[in-house]
Amino acid sequence: MYIFFRKCTSRHPVSGALQFHRMISSSEVATALRPFYFAVHPDLFGRYPQQRQVNEDSLKLLSAHLESLLNQQRILPTTPRTLPFYIRASNAPQDRGTFNLIKVPLERTVDAKLLLRRILESCNLSTEYVDKMPSTRNSTPSGTNAGDFQQQQQQNSFYYRKRTEYNFGKDRADDDDAPFEKEFDLFQFRIKKVRENETLKKWLRKHVITATVRTKALQELQEEVEKLREDVTKRLGLREIIYDCGWNVEHFRGCLKSLEKLAELHPGALDGLKDRTLVFAAFTGVSLEGHVMLFTGDVQRNWLELIKTIDKHDSYLKKLPAYEYALSQVLRNIRIGRRKFMPKAQAMAYASHLRKITTALLDYLGRSKFPKAWPQDLSKFELVVESEAGPLMVSPTGQLIVPATCPGSLLIDFLTNHLAEALDKQNSYDHQKHIERDLHARCVAQFRLLSLTKDDSVTPDRMIECLEKLLSEGATGLELADLNLTITTYYSVLADGTVCIPWDWKH
């Protein structure tokens, strides 16, 4: 923190006036915005590339804006009036994939305290820390009218000068911010053009060293985590421990240590985990596969409560085949499946979803009949029942996805209009999955990759197109050896060195 006095030297000086400035330090800004960063950090949206990219881009612009305020006490001409951010609707398991889009305002002022308060208020976060900070506004010099001093400050501000330059002396009171909006649009356009012109080979040349350094730097940590995983697995009598929450390996180590500490504090309380598969995931419960899921954001007490009541969750798990069979019989032997490439579901919630959709169909059949155009047997088709907020769609793999709260009439109408589409996509996927597996194995061998994965958003046809291009480009020397490669929708090097490339990368 710095406190200093300086003589006023503006073009419109106030005679004999002294201005008092208190500059907020970068550490104070980081502390004030810590709750905000925890809510919008891109690492929290690993399974949702669109939301991750929006938050990542907005954080870069916010960082540049804060840096300009702290170091130069000015507003960048490229700074927009608002920045979009996605935040989770809630931490409830059924809302994991539901987000709210918020607009964070960037005040046209060099008062950093006011800016921090507006950012936190836009996300309904506490401003207690900011409110306790001393004001950063310049004090009004003695003997000077407050209104005149404010006008002089405005005239000397960067914003005022840039607005005048862009307006070319014209009076545009109704469009004061247009120059900034236009410049920001131009800035966004330039970013888009750079991305469009970015080739894979060019991008790799710029980032492969960073990826290699990060990968090697984590090797020792990964070895330590693997040893810790083996020790905890053996100690608790588990089949295996899986990490499936999208965070980095350091977070995995923290989860393992928390579980180890829980076993030390409550000896014997974790006996229910014996011969089970434990997964650190996005919710706490028992999955449809019978795996014990522990949410990495939960406190140890919640983990312990689940482990003590595993029998209750297992009872729901045992009922699932009967619920699925009942729904299948109502819908002419349609197959009841689980959605491919999606996060795990909780057995207790899934049982409730099956009961709801079956009841809705029985209510419909009490008033109407199935369409005459339907085949007498629907066993060729596969139905997936999801949460109340789920989609109503045909997946790329040919599955018929329906939300649990879908009314019977709407469901019947949807099936009538999409059975043919579902069958076509299903046949296409059955053919493509074998091609994808073959291309996957060839790419791992040819490029000597440590691993090759893909995001849930990358369908088999997109993955095939990407892998075929990689193999055809391989002869020209793509630098991918000893890297972990993920096919997604954007370019990035993750903290653990994983290289992310878009499936539609350019030659």
From TrEMBL:
Against InterPro entries, the record matches this protein to:
DUF4460, DUF4461, TCAIM
Which residue stretches, if any, does this entry annotate as coiled coil? Answer: 211-238
Q: Which Pfam families match?
A: DUF4460, DUF4461
> What's one GO-annotated cellular component?
mitochondrion
Assigned keywords, A-Z: Coiled coil
Biased-composition ranges, Polar residues, are 135-149
Where in the numbering of this chain does the DUF4461 domain appear?
198-506
Domain DUF4460 stretches: 22-125
Q: Specify the superkingdom.
A: Eukaryota
Q: Where is this region: Disordered?
A: 131-153
Question: What name appears for this protein in its UniProt entry?
Answer: T-cell activation inhibitor, mitochondrial
